[in-house]
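Box 4.2: Ligand-aware structure prediction
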Amino acid sequence: MSTIGFHSHNHDQCIADTLSTADAHCAEEGLQFTPVRRRVLEILLAEHKAMGAYDILPTLADEGLGSQPPVVYRALDFLVKNGLAHRIELLNAYIACAHLGRAHRPAFLICRECKLVAEADAELARGRLGEAAREAGFTIERMVVELEGLCPACAA
Amino acid sequence: MSTIGFHSHNHDQCIADTLSTADAHCAEEGLQFTPVRRRVLEILLAEHKAMGAYDILPTLADEGLGSQPPVVYRALDFLVKNGLAHRIELLNAYIACAHLGRAHRPAFLICRECKLVAEADAELARGRLGEAAREAGFTIERMVVELEGLCPACAA
DNA sequence: AGAGAGTCCGTTATAACATATCAATCCCGG
DNA sequence: CCGGGATTGATATGTTATAACGGACTCTCT
Ligand SMILES: [Zn+2]
Ligand SMILES: [Zn+2]
Ligand SMILES: [Zn+2]
Ligand SMILES: [Zn+2]
């Protein structure tokens, strides 16, 4: 799994691909990909950066899609629950999933300088830590792995 | 490194040891371990659970040690900066360090049922994930590893 | 002693993030 | 057409965190 986000790429294509994959996924699963939900995903997709709920809200409001916090939080809950977006705990913010369609346990690389967020694979972290948890009798239900630091561009 | 928190242990001793280690550490480093700061650490030490700033505040207020949010946040910042406590991002809460004095990169096992938090070693997670970050050109400055699940007692 | 710097603390106000609740609407199968 | 489930609208509130300013104390240098 690559760490999309720090690599330069055709981002318009990246957006289009993700949206069509999301459409297909929701159709398959019988999920209602409503205008609010779709637009929130589009807004998140604009950049590979995390956005707070209150960053998203004004855009939604301008477009007449709802102007109160619950509207955006409900949409974000839907996206997160269905794997279309992820919540970044370190930032209290949300980001579109960069690996839509592929089952994955995300880990995040967060640049403290430019705020870009790349998505990597947390399975890579599980090995010995998973063993340690098992030895402690702990049942892992959710892993949060977030690495803060400097992306290649900002380190240079 | 053991995962203190889920094991039964002499907790009064656990508290006393940690406080005296903290006293010694602050003396060595020339840090001012003021009454507010010490009391906040004591409050955190009462249980191996994470507490929010606003859980701590009333106790402080009752004792005349400050009744406004900045008081407790400043104390928590001090404790976290100096390694005497850790912030749990998943819970927006704080916990006393269970491995005071030993250099460590903590990972947390958080029971969603009883809210106990155990501290394990995040180095265990670094191996292949660290490689992946390096390949992406990402410089890790801070790791947040938090595992939510069920502790042995609650799983039974 | 007095001036200046540094650190900590008290206080007010506000920012930022998130949810509870209830009513209205839409949509689809029976 | 009707009923139930999901979604949305709207108001209010709850929770977490910081900005900003001034006062108290201590230490140091002159
Ligand atoms: Zn892209
Ligand atoms: Zn960067
Ligand atoms: Zn620790
Ligand atoms: Zn438990």
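In the box above, the bound molecule is zinc ion. The pocket of zinc ion (ligand 3) is lined by residues B 86, 97-99, 104, 106, 119 (CB under 6 Å).
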